[in-house]
Design brief:
Low-confidence stretches: none
Structural class: mainly beta
Oligomer: single chain
CATH superfamily of the domain at 12-117: Jelly Rolls
Largest sheet: 6 strands, antiparallel
Length: 154
Amino acid sequence: MTVVNLRTAALDEEPDAPAGRRCRRSDVGVAHGATLTGLEVWDLPPGEAGEPYHYELEREVWLVVVAGAPTVRTPAGERRLRAGDVECFPVGPAGAHELRNDTDEAVRLALASNRSGAAHATVQPGSDKLHVSDGGRRRIVRASPELDFWDGEA
């Protein structure tokens, strides 16, 4: 069994992310053969954000702030978190979230979730997009054809 350190794990660039969404991440759960639970580690450089505001259709997501002070946007509004904070984003619209780094310091996050199967679906309410991923490529199921994953957010 391999051990991963959340503070030092090597992460990969998001190759197709536009400016403002350039985070580094690694799905350490998949890398370790996990099939029921997912664990991703993300780095958000200053001024960058993760995925657009969205919610999961079948996954509950837990956030652990490993380092830094990210801003989290939820249906209740925005607030700053700090290292050591833990938050749960439930399934459905009540769990909508976006994570940003509005500081001059690096932010590192760990995101754990249940894995309900090979496909994964999220909704981006700001653009009325439904995304389905088969574990690799994202595919927009419902939205204007000229929008991609990153475009059209409110």
